[in-house]
Amino acid sequence: MKKKHVLTTVMVLLISVIFAGCGGGNNGAQTTETGETDWPKETVTFVVPYSAGGDTDTYARQLAAGLSNELDNNFIVVNTVGGGGVVAGSSVLGASPDGYTALFHHTGVMLAQEAADAIEFSYLDDFEMVASVARDDTYALIAKADSPWTTLEDMISWAQANPGQLRYSITYYGATHAVATMMENTMDIEMNNIDVGSATADRLTAFMADQCDVLVVNFMNIEDYIENGDFVVLGIASEERLPGLEEFPTIKEQGYNVVLSKIYEVRLPKGTDQRIVDTFTEAIEAVATTDEFRDILARYYAEPFYRDAETADRENREEVEVLKEIFAE
């Protein structure tokens, strides 16, 4: 397995940004007469590691809209792609710890990279955790409708008869990598893992151009293709069938323990004033627990999933240990 040096080039390109952002050390927090912080006084930016339109971007924008109302301040999204999320993570890592630049990312990539020791920084140790926001269990394994297989068992039989020939769209050290490892381990198959990019749009383009045979992707990104009959769902990587998607079997119920949830979280630069972190956390809880937020996420077959910083950090570390065991198999 590739290790940290895979992304060294990206980190070298970013080092000047990081050093520039780390200077000063003024976190910008001011205390009111009641002892509370006056944050936020200006626009807060969510840095999202992927292009507009995908699941991470969609949920970030929904949270930003809710927080703008909750805190009577502007929250915006900036899409910063590259390096499998490393460019976005590094830009926030090096930002001023004043509460105005936050990372909105999901555990599917962050924890896989952490478990694989694949990046030069730690999402768990080098940021201030704020809260978890949403959860999406709709990671669907799909094939084209005109492929040689339209069921999971057909795909497995073909892959076993043709070792190393099933072309799978992978982003190394991300959610797709974790799913690939679980598939190969539980299905007794060997796939031809092809990296066509980390952005959902790039992966879908490569899939439709017949550069790969199967891929996993959040259902919201392929719903139209399923309805049009272009793609077929071989299974969903969830523990049980999902509300609104009951017609699609899980991979687990078909006999293969392939389960992966993507939990979307907010992080701030290390050293951010704890009063800012606490205010941010409380505001996220207020938004994430509303019926309005729940109903919005339900459109994408996702759900609110609020966890405070302490709970999220503890459970993320536990999940990293599980992923380490998966990658070691």
Automatic annotation (TrEMBL):
> Does Signal count among this protein's keywords?
yes
Q: Report keywords, A-Z.
A: Receptor, Signal
Q: Which residues form the signal peptide?
A: 1-20
What the record says about family reads:
Belongs to the UPF0065 (bug) family.
Query: PANTHER family, per this entry?
Result: BLR1237 PROTEIN, TRICARBOXYLATE-BINDING PROTEIN
| Protein name according to UniProt | Tripartite-type tricarboxylate transporter, receptor component TctC
Q: Which organism is it from?
A: Anoxynatronum buryatiense
